[in-house]
Design goal:
By secondary structure, this protein is mainly alpha-helical. It is built from 19 helices and 4 strands. Bound molecules: zinc ion.
Length: about 450
């Protein structure tokens, strides 16, 4: 369920991109060239996109690339093992009557149904966390260390896991009480309003996340350094984004990964940069990353994400309704489950959702990846730093395979691959030779690591 919550939080993060109201439809017009057309064409040096791409890709040392490939490809299998282990644990909970007993215990403690649901949820998520702990430790701790992607020793890592569990207990508890309330009132049509309630709940979580959840894991401060803050805020103003502050957070507590995001909703909306980006990247690289994040904002990706993922969620609940009724008709009695309104049905629902979301991986990845590519295009036009962009794409290659096959990219990538992104940057550069940066081109991105 921690993994399920992680999935839910991923969706919530997408929702959190929701714009600060001004849904600016910017027609990104290129600035008019001061030079006559003929002169401009004559002065542009010959530039070959393919060899420029190969030049950047070759900056990544072979050992680094092998490590990244192995890490990312292993992740494909982990998605499968995670789903299979969840299905296995849930089957045990049903088959050996644990689910029924957890419900009976909750009913003995209180007569209030919503409270019974909450007590069941507490037992459910604690049991699941204990049983899947070995896989979780391997995946989140030992494997991350093996690939040099985690900075934490076991104590602080474990502290983060416990906090995540407490957040799951509280937020998951609220959602489960809400959903069972709907099931009990609406009966057959529960899945329509259940999916609407889930989407609204995720939007609520994304609203409170920057203020109440993220600070549990990292320290957020307002970015002070004027050399970085001023150009970012200037770009924000130029793109119609009413931001007055940029936040930075100490992601280096957990890892060296370079990253930035737009989070929150309404008044909690903010752009945050992680300290790895600030410490490991040049100003052009930071600017192009910020241009990308502003793209998410201006292109209204949060709203579009809510609608597109909304379809995935509604279909998921329809599938779930069908799946639960089918399984209960066959095995409900032997599992001691009284019907779809019985909270003891939760392991069965988890099996259904695990299967559904595993099968939907290419769909949800493609929704996200498409928007990420749009944000890349926006970032190139806003920041005008194609060489900086290519260097950042290389740094992201530390934890994402640089050159997958097209099919692999379609199925498993929630962002475009490094090769796709660098190709886009170099294609843009070919049309804007005046933006070329010799310093960025020469910068050995990987020696600083
Ligand atoms: Zn993005």
């Amino acid at each position: 369920m921690v993994r399920l919550m992680a999935h839910a939080i991923c969706i919530a993060l997408l929702c959190s991109l929701l714009a600060i109201i001004t849904s600016a439809q910017t027609a990104a017009a290129e600035p008019a060239s001061a030079q006559p057309v003929a002169a401009a064409t004559a002065s542009s040096p010959p530039f070959d996109v393919n060899s420029a791409v190969e030049f950047y890709l070759a900056k990544m040392p072979p050992a680094e690339r092998a490590r990244s490939n192995s890490y990312f490809e292993g992740g494909y299998w982990l998605q499968l093992w995670d789903s299979l282990s969840t299905v296995l644990v849930m089957s045990f909970l049903l088959k050996f009557g644990w689910s029924r007993r957890m419900r009976d215990l909750a009913e003995r403690i209180t007569r209030l149904r919503p409270l019974q649901t909450a007590l069941y949820w507490l037992q459910f998520i604690l049991t699941l966390s204990v049983v899947t702990f070995p896989l979780g430790v391997y995946e989140g701790y030992f494997r991350e260390h093996k690939y040099g992607l985690l900075n934490q020793s076991f104590g602080p890592w474990m502290r983060d896991q416990v906090i995540a569990l407490v957040v799951s207990v509280v937020l998951g508890g609220i959602l489960i009480m809400l959903l069972f309330g709907i099931v009990r009132r609406l009966g057959k049509n529960w899945w329509v309003w259940g999916s609407v309630a889930s989407i609204l709940f995720l939007m609520f979580v994304s609203t409170i996340a920057p203020v109440y959840i993220f600070p549990l894991f990292n320290k957020f401060t307002k970015l002070q350094d004027a050399r970085i803050k001023d150009p970012i805020l200037s770009m924000a103003r130029a793109n119609g984004i009413p931001a007055t502050d940029v936040y930075e957070f100490d992601a280096s507590r957990q890892s060296n990964r370079v990253s930035a995001n737009v989070s929150g909703f309404g008044s909690t909306q903010r752009i945050s940069l992680n300290d790895n980006l600030l410490n490991r990247c040049t100003l052009p690289e930071i600017e192009t990353t910020m241009g990308h994040e502003m793209g998410h904002y201006v292109l209204n990706h949060a709203t579009k994400g809510v609608f597109m993922y909304g379809v995935v969620v509604v279909l998921g609940f329809a599938f779930l309704n069908w799946f639960i009724n089918l399984a209960l008709a066959r095995w409900g009695e032997s599992w001691g489950i009284r019907g779809i309104t019985d909270v003891a049905v939760l392991p069965l629902a988890t099996i259904g959702l695990s299967i559904y979301f595993l099968l939907m991986t290419p769909v949800s990845n493609t929704i996200t990846r498409t928007m990420e590519f749009e944000a890349d295009m926006y970032g190139l036009n806003a920041a005008r730093q194609p060489d900086g962009e290519a260097n950042v794409d290389l740094l992201l290659g530390e934890y994402r395979k640089m050159e997958p096959s097209p099919l692999e990219e379609f199925f498993f990538f929630d962002h475009p691959s490094g090769r796709t992104r660098i190709t886009a940057a170099m294609r843009w550069k070919a049309e804007h030779p005046e933006t070329a940066s010799a310093e960025e081109l020469a910068r050995p991105v990987f020696t600083s690591h």
